[in-house]
Amino acid sequence: MLGFLVGEALRDLRRAGRVAISAIVLITLSLAALGGFWLVSSNLGRAVAQWRDRVRIVVYLKREPSAPEAVLGRVRAIPGVSGVTYIAKADALRALKQVLGKDASVVDHLPANPLPASLEVTPSATAATPEGARDLVGRLAALPEADEVAGSADWIERLSQWQRLLATIGLGVGAVLAVAAILTVTTATTLILHARRHETEIMRLVGAPESAIRLPLLLQGMMQGLAGAVLASIALMAGYSLVAPRLEPLVNLTLGIPDLEFFSPFGILTLLGAGTLLGGLGGWLARARREP
Amino acid sequence: MIEVHRVSKVYSVGPVKVPALREVSFRVSKGEFVVLSGASGAGKTTLLRLLYRDDRPSEGDIEVLGHELVPMRRSQVATLRRSIGIVFQDAKLLPVRTVYENIAFVLRVLGAPRRELTARVFDALRVVGLSSRAQAYPAQLSQGEAQRAALARAIVRRPPLLLADEPTGNLDDAMAAEIVDVLKDIGAGGTTIVLATHQARLARALHRRTITLDGGRVVKDEG
Asked: Which residues pair with B2 in a beta bridge?
């Protein structure tokens, strides 16, 4: 019976012709837009998560402490501190030389080491937000040894806001296109209903169960949706294969993530499910509107 | 098999009430072949539509195959119709399907196993004498052949009751006689048949019980 119903649905799709193709194209566009924004947003999300882990607050000290362990102990006791590392003046100079690379010899001409000793503080997860980081900076600045405290999580939050904005735009554009896709599937199904009115009449006359009359309509909508979702997935995959290798060096440099990730198998399944659902909804709406 | 008791049907056309049937009563026993006769507009089609529960009477009761049709819910109509074969003046064949597919379609929608299709379809085609035209499309059939294909579709489920609404209405005398012969063969197999026709000569030639309608009333029930 299921084979028959699927066969009828396929026959209906052929009947709908260009309208069915339009519906499939619209579903493809809506899911490709939704998926595209989703991809950008999820990669930005990865960057945000990574940078949150990397937030450091640096406390520059007035002078090199004679007993760094005592200072470290007091800093560790401050709420919001997950870890702390002491960087002596000599270590700071060594790090500077490393950064300068072949120009490191410039440092040798300095009369004395101008760099201060410092404490590199890793905030706990709760303190890695703009407010948490500001509070922590205030507490660290109150240390008698502290000369200056640098660091905040503001820019990470700005990145996070961009990520949320992109996700919202993606949802908005995707939703508008999805509504258009549903309406097109509804139109295609309405045409199919008209084209199959003789079959429907015969089916009712011979006492066919309602499921046999209605399911092909729902199925052809779902098939349109699934076809659109498969095409959208292929388009996204092709776009990713083309764009990712070119963008990755830039992304690595600006966002600090080594590569751009594509959807997981679960993500692709979600996309296919969403397409099938959109198409099914269109088919169901037409059926609900036109069936006597 | 069929019991029609004081059935009236009135159609409303805006404020105007048009009576189609008035106090119609009759019984049809199992295996009977009954002709519903009358001029166009006498109420034959309306009466047949009430018998397969395509409409409800305005008044009266109808019982078909043990089902009370007036209180019947829509969901129960399908069950009733699975026991009734229906044939119309226009054969109502699906133009994009062959004769075989038209008949098999009915079996498929009712969930018949695929392995039984061919045998059952050809059984029905044999009864109506159309086995050689199984792969023809409706457009390639004569009107008589199309009507025989419609008859095959109606009997393929071996229903105990066959309702035929002017099946010979579009046919010349020779073709009409062929259809009547097929109907007689089906009736001889034990199927109860109600045949509606406006062709008085055909009704007389059948030599079967004839219920004559005029203006929505039963004016004669003889034979």
From this structure: B28, B64
Q: How many Å lie between the alpha carbon of A202 and the closest alpha carbon of chain B?
A: 8
Tell me how far apart the alpha carbons of residues A265 and A271 are, in angstroms, rounded to a whole number.
10
pLDDT 10s per residue in chain B (223 long)? Answer: 899 999 999 999 888 999 999 999 999 999 999 999 999 889 999 999 999 999 999 999 999 999 999 999 888 898 899 899 999 988 889 888 999 999 999 898 888 888 889 999 999 999 899 999 999 999 999 988 999 999 999 999 999 999 999 988 888 888 888 888 889 989 998 999 999 999 888 888 888 999 999 999 999 998 7
On whether any CB of chain A is under 8 Å from the CB of B77, the answer is yes
- CB-based burial, A101-117: b 16+ in 10 Å, e otherwise: eeeeeeeeeeeeeebbb
Rounded to 5°, angle at Cα A95 from A89 and A96: 90
**The domain that contains B181 carries what CATH number?**
3.40.50.300
A194 CA: distance to closest CA in chain B (Å) = 14
**Total count of domains within chain B:** 1
Mutate to test the interface with A, among B74, B96, B109, B116 (most CBs of A within 10 A): B109
Domains of chain A: total = 2
**Which value does ipTM take for this structure?**
0.83
Tell me the C-alpha to C-alpha distance, in Å, between residue A286 and each of A174, A199, B204.
Answer: 21, 17, 49
Same domain, A126 and A86: yes
Question: Which residues 41-100 in chain A show a CB within 8 A of chain B?
Answer: none
Distances (CA, A) of A73 to A60, A76, A81, A87, A258: 16, 5, 11, 15, 35
| B52: closest chain A residue by CA | A205
Interface of B with A in 164-223 (CB under 8 A): none
Terminal Cα distance for chain A, rounded: 24
- Residue A276, min C-alpha distance to chain B (Å): 24
Q: Verify that A84 and A142 share a domain, yes or no.
A: yes
Beta-carbon separation of A212 and B75 below 8 A = no
| B124 domain residue, yes or no | no
A-B Cβ pairs (cutoff 8 Å, strict): 48
Taking the Cβ of residue B116 and every Cβ of chain A, the question of whether any pair is shorter than 8 Å is answered with no
Nearest CA in chain B to A196: B94
Indicate whether A125 and A71 sit together in one domain.
Answer: yes
* Tens digits of residue pLDDT in A69-87: 999 999 999 998 989 999 9
Partner residue opposite A207 with nearest CB, options B80, B95, B105: B80
Are A60 and A46 part of one and the same domain?
Answer: no
- B87 within a domain of the structure (yes/no): yes
